[in-house]
Amino acid sequence: MKRSSITAVLATLAASAALAGCGDSAPTDKDVRDAMLRQLERAMGKEAADSQKEELAKVRVVKCVKAELGGFACEIDSPVGGRGTGRFKKESDGWTFVGNSG
Q1: Widest CA span of the chain, in angstroms?
Q2: Does residue 21 have a pLDDT over 70?
Q3: Are the C-beta atoms of residues 72 and 25 closer than 8 Å to each other?
Q4: pLDDT at 100
Q5: What is the pLDDT of residues 65-85, one digit of tens each?
Q6: What 3-state class would DSSP assign to 38?
Q7: Tell me, what's the pLDDT at 10?
Q8: pLDDT score recorded for residue 92
Q9: How far, in Å, are 10, 14, 49, 75, 100 from residue 81 at the CA level?
Q10: What's the pLDDT band for 42 if we cut at 50, 70, 90?
Q11: How many Å apart are CA 21 and CA 11, to the nearest integer?
Q12: Which controlled-vocabulary keywords does the entry list (predicted)?
């Protein structure tokens, strides 16, 4: 169930991509985890998102580079979903996942 929940959220994240600028510094592990948690809360509700916190705590950024469409394209490692990529941008309230980068 955990793997399918995160997979479903990643699909939702890709569908809700938006274009915007970002700052000069790449997101940290915590920034990426916080962005993923916020997206999970929007997609599944706070209670369901909270149930994923333990798995999200294991997410690590492998590397990030500036993305052509703005933000940063990041390679992310997760024990649940394995290695994946995503594009993150800085908003006034923190980092946001804005879609798949590859």
Answers
A1: 37
A2: no
A3: no
A4: 78
A5: 999 888 999 999 988 778 999
A6: helix
A7: 55
A8: 92
A9: 10, 15, 16, 12, 14
A10: very high
A11: 22
A12: Signal
Cβ neighbours for 99, distance < 8 A, ≥ 6 positions apart? 13, 14, 16, 17, 86, 87
- Give Cβ neighbours of residue 43 (< 8 Å, ≥ 6 apart): 8, 9, 12, 13
Q: Which two tokens stand for residue 1?
A: 């169930």
Which residue is associated with the tokens 């929940």?
Answer: 5
The alpha helices in the chain, defined as continuous H runs, are: 2-15, 29-44, 46-50, 53-56
Spatial contact of 55 and 79, defined as CB atoms under 8 Å apart = yes
| Residue carrying structure tokens 């979903």 | 81
Angle at Cα 10 formed by Cα 70 and Cα 82, nearest 5°?
A: 100
The structure tokens 């990529």 sit at: 85
